[in-house]
Design goal:
single chain, 181 residues, little secondary structure, 0% helix
Amino acid sequence: DSDGDGYGDNPAGNNSDAFPTDSTQWSDIDGDGFGDNPAGNNPDAFPNESTQWSDSDGDGCGDNMGGNNPDFFPNDPTQCGDADGDGYGDNTSGNNPDAFPADGTQWSDADGDGYGDNQQGNNPDAFTNDSTQWSDSDGDGYGDNQQGNNPDAFPTDATQWSDADGDGYGDNPTGTDPDAF
């Protein structure tokens, strides 16, 4: 017992020391080279998982990206996973949560309408500050949802959006089919 920890140096023995020169460690159940004694030198945060040994932020996910259950945010104890790889965490109550954890093109939904704020991503929200509108087919700045705020009376005509008297002719005098009255 070279290090005096009560475990023999003989690797074939029943009470053998996995760390014969370190008196603070003697066991390495998973064989990853880190000791099972949490108070010893080089402790293993995951003593039964050979692909992980450290957890710098203490969230239960390992720092080894090549191991099982890796921590994509090793310095943030509120986030661990990032299923879609967009850099925003899957934990909705953690820091920088991903509103769309299965879509790598979207991560934020400021108005909470289910459409993403990234205009280049899937299902972008044309109105990021209005939860009643999300699409604008003709690009005139008025929404397609007729029950929402500022609906477009002519959702397929970019030159018209309002019809105050409801006669089917637009209020924009320079647009297509303007209302003379």
